Amino acid sequence: xxxxxxxxxxxxxxxxxxxxxxxxxxxxxxxxxxxxxxxxxxxxxxxxxxxxxxxxxxxxxxxxxxxxxxxxxxxxxxxxxxxxxxxxxxxxxxxxxxxxxxxxxxxxxxxxxxxxxxxxxxxxxxxxxxxxxxxxxxxxxxxxxxxxxxxxxxxxxxxxxxxxxxxxxxxxxxxxxxxxxxxxxxxxxxxxxxxxxxxxxxxxxxxxxxxxxxxxxxxxxxxxxxxxxxxxxxxxx
Length: 237
Known about the structure:
This protein has strands spanning 2-6, 12-15, 19-23, 41-49, 54-60, 64-71, 73-78, 83-87, 90-95, 100-106, 113-120, 130-135, 144-150, 158-159, 165-171, 176-180, 186-199, 202-204, 209-213, 217-234. The protein has 237 residues and is mainly beta. The protein has 2 domains: 12-137, Jelly Rolls (Sandwich), CATH 2.60.120; 138-234, Jelly Rolls (Sandwich). Strands 1, 13, 14, 15, 16, 17, 18, 19 and 20 form a 9-stranded mixed beta sheet that branches. Strands 2-3-4-11-6-9-12 form a 7-stranded antiparallel beta sheet, with no helix packed on it. It has a 4-stranded antiparallel beta sheet with strand order 5-10-7-8, with no helix packed on it. Strand 2 and strand 3 form a beta hairpin.
């Protein structure tokens, strides 16, 4: 078993005024050669966008991009003609493929927006760009992970061009969960959204990230009521 620990306080942090952001992996002006990616997981940004502000139109290509609002409302517009509102309880996905442009703004003028921006290297290049979003509210289960992303169009959640599976879960203190790897050779990156947990002997707190690979399964013990994002990804880019 191999592991890597990224404590919340060690993330890259930049406050632009309109954007207060923490980067788990190297991004923009934050460059750490020891934190370039975890397998195909390239970006994990924890963004707080000020009231009515946002990201002006900008390009992407050959990246699978996932947005998960944690609080507030995100307004999206793109070069494919999509205009959408994404809120807490929704998941948005874009296959940037051969190239797209888009903008993202905090829809509200009276409160901040907090969302996760996640980039994943695809297993196919220059695919036709694609957009989708779903509500995951009806998928939630008590004390159990529920799938929000996979490689399969017909599975629960959104899908991407990569052999990756993402799960969310809310757990009560004292609950123990076993997660089994779906594809041999994949690794697991766990991000603690709220609360605390212990994974394979490692104590984790809010916004800590913990990567594990060369395992078939992991044990997750909830030491304080928590919410967890679990990402299973290929380790070879």
